Amino acid sequence: MNKSTARKPAKPCYEHIGGKLGQLLLEQFVEKGWIAKDNPADRQYYITDKGTEEFTKLGLDLSKIKAE
Q1: 48-58 average pLDDT score
Q2: CB environment 20-53: b (16+ within 10 A), e (fewer)
Q3: pTM value surpassing 0.85
Q4: What would you report as the CA-atom Rg of the chain, rounded to the nearest whole angstrom?
């Protein structure tokens, strides 16, 4: 398979990760309770207290996330 025609597992899309990797990360973060929605119809997720703890353990500086 040619490198330029191979499907990319992750791609930047504006300010997020798109592609299969982005989808898998989202699913795992929800399953682990690191992110959640108040209502299933909501488009946006929030970081839970558990997520704040776990993302911080991974070395992520959550203060860099814009509040919207």
Answers
A1: 96
A2: eebeeeeeebeeeebbeeeeeeeeeeebbeebee
A3: no
A4: 14
